[in-house]
Specification:
- By secondary structure, this protein is mostly helical.
- It is built from 14 helices and no strands.
- Helix 1 (2-26) crosses helix 9, helix 2 packs antiparallel against helix 4 and helix 8 (181-211) runs antiparallel to helix 9.
- The longest helix is centred in the middle third of the chain and has 49 residues, at 217-265.
- The N and C termini lie far apart (81 Å).
C-alpha cells in the first residue's frame, strides 16, 4: 500500500518538476523559477525514495543498508537550502549593490548548509550500528546510536529552519499580491511549511522520550511521517497553483464563452482564426491564448455591429433588467447582451437605425481576467427571457415607426 501511495505522489511531483523545468528553460534568467525547480525536485525525490520497495532496491543496488535514507534526507535538505536562498532573494533589495550582497549571502548559506550536512553524513557513516533496513522506523531504530542521532538532529535543524523561513515569508508576500493565484499558492506553501514543522516537532519529541527510556512509536513513526507527507503535498500544490490556477480559470471561461462565441461569429467567419471543435478534455497548453482569442473575436463583432443598434436599446435593456431585479453586474451584462443580439438581428436584415448607439462594448478596466469574467457573464444572460422581452419591444417600436 505504501508503495502505491508514495509512487503515485512521486509521479505527480515529478510531473510538476517537469512542468516547472520546461518553464524555466524558456526563461533561464528567472533565478526564482530555477530555485523552484530545485526545491520541487527535492520533494519529488523524497516521495520516490519513501516507497519501501524503492528504498530497499536502492540499498541493494548500492550494497549499503539505509543509504537511501541519506539520499532521502539530502533531498529534504536540498529543499530547505533552496527555501533559505529564496528567502534571501525575496528580502534583498533591487539595487546592484544589494543584489551583490544577496548573492554573497546566498553562497554563504549554501556553503554553511553544505558543510553542516557533510558533517551529518559523516556521523551517519560512522554511527550506523547494523545493516538492517529501516525504511519506516529509521529514527526510532537508531535512537540509541549517537552518530545517527546527530545526523537526524542536524537534518531536522536545517529542515526546520527552511520551513520556518518560508512559513513566515510566504504569507507576507501573498498579502501584497491582491488575491492572485500566486498569492493563493504562497499561502498553501506556508500551510505546508507549518505542517512540516509539526513533523520536526514530533521527531524531536520522539527523540526526547527515547532518551528518557519511553518509546513513542505512534508519534515518531505514525503522526510524523503522515504530517510530512501531507505537508509535502501542500508545498507541491502551492508551487503548482500559480501555473495551473490561471489555466483552469481560462478553461472555465472558454467553456462559458463558447456558446456566445459560436452565436456571434456564425455569420462573421472573417474575424475568426479557423477554430476547430475541441474535445471536452483538451490540453491546457494554450487554453489561455484560446480564451483571449475568443474574447477578442467577440469584441471585433461587437464593434462591427454598433451602427445596427438603436440608441435607445441600451436604456430600454437597463430599465427591463432593473424591473427584473438584477444586480449591477448582471444588469451591465444584460445591457451588453441585448445590444449584441439586437445588432446581429438588424445586421442580418440590413436595417440601420437612424440613431445608432455610441458603443455596445463595456470594458472592465486593465485586468484581462476581470473583462473575461464580464464577457462570460454576458454569455450567461444572453438567452434570458428578459433579453427576449427587450428585443420584442424594440421590434414593436421599429414596426410602429414611420417609414
Amino acid at each position: 500500500m505504501f508503495d502505491v501511495i508514495y509512487l503515485c505522489f512521486g509521479a505527480a511531483a515529478w510531473a510538476i518538476v517537469a512542468y516547472k523545468t520546461r518553464a524555466w528553460l524558456r526563461d533561464r534568467r528567472n533565478a526564482d523559477l530555477g530555485l523552484t525547480c530545485v526545491m520541487t525536485a527535492g520533494v519529488a525525490t523524497v516521495f520516490l525514495l519513501s516507497a519501501p520497495s524503492v528504498y530497499r532496491g536502492f540499498d541493494r543496488l548500492t550494497g549499503v543498508a539505509n543509504l537511501a535514507m541519506v539520499f532521502l534526507y539530502s533531498a529534504v535538505v536540498q529543499f530547505a537550502m533552496g527555501a533559505l536562498v529564496l528567502l534571501l532573494r525575496w528580502t534583498g533589495g533591487t539595487s546592484e549593490e544589494e543584489r551583490t550582497r544577496t548573492a554573497r549571502r546566498a553562497w554563504t548559506v549554501v556553503t554553511v548548509v553544505g558543510a553542516v550536512w557533510t558533517v551529518a553524513v559523516v556521523c551517519f557513516a560512522v554511527g550506523r550500528p547494523d545493516a538492517v533496513e529501516h525504511p519506516r522506523d529509521f529514527s526510532t531504530a537508531y535512537a540509541d546510536a549517537p552518530g545517527v542521532v546527530t545526523f537526524l538532529v542536524l537534518y531536522l535543524a536545517i529542515f526546520g529552519t527552511g520551513l520556518a523561513a518560508l512559513g513566515v515569508l510566504c504569507p507576507r508576500y501573498a498579502g501584497r499580491l491582491d488575491g492572485s493565484w500566486l498569492a493563493r499558492g504562497l499561502r498553501v506553501i506556508a500551510a505546508g511549511c507549518w505542517l512540516g514543522l509539526l513533523y520536526c516537532a514530533c521527531k524531536v519529541t520522539g527523540f526526547a522520550f527515547s532518551w528518557a527510556g519511553r518509546e513513542l512509536y505512534w508519534l515518531s513513526n505514525g503522526i510524523a511521517p503522515m504530517s510530512a507527507s501531507v505537508a509535502a503535498l501542500l508545498v507541491l500544490a502551492g508551487f503548482a497553483l500559480p501555473a495551473v490556477g490561471p489555466r483552469v480559470s481560462a478553461w472555465r471561461r472558454l467553456r462559458r464563452l463558447e456558446p456566445l462565441w459560436r452565436a456571434v461569429t456564425a455569420d462573421a467567419p472573417e474575424v475568426t482564426m479557423g477554430h476547430r471543435s475541441w474535445p471536452a478534455l483538451w490540453s491546457f497548453t494554450d487554453v489561455e491564448w484560446r480564451a483571449n482569442r475568443q474574447m477578442a473575436e467577440i469584441r471585433d463583432v461587437q464593434r462591427g455591429i454598433r451602427r445596427y443598434v438603436e440608441a435607445d436599446a441600451l436604456g430600454l435593456a437597463r430599465a427591463k433588467g432593473t424591473e427584473a431585479g438584477l444586480d449591477e453586474r448582471r444588469l451591465t451584462a444584460l445591457v451588453e447582451a441585448a445590444a449584441l443580439r439586437r445588432g446581429l438581428q438588424n445586421q442580418a436584415v440590413g436595417h440601420v437605425p437612424a440613431h445608432s448607439a455610441d458603443s455596445v462594448v463595456v470594458t472592465m478596466g486593465a485586468d484581462p481576467a476581470e473583462e473575461h469574467e464580464h464577457l462570460a457573464l454576458v454569455a450567461d444572460v444572453y438567452r434570458l427571457p428578459v433579453v427576449d422581452d427587450v428585443l420584442d419591444t424594440l421590434r414593436e417600436r421599429s414596426a410602429a415607426a414611420p417609414q
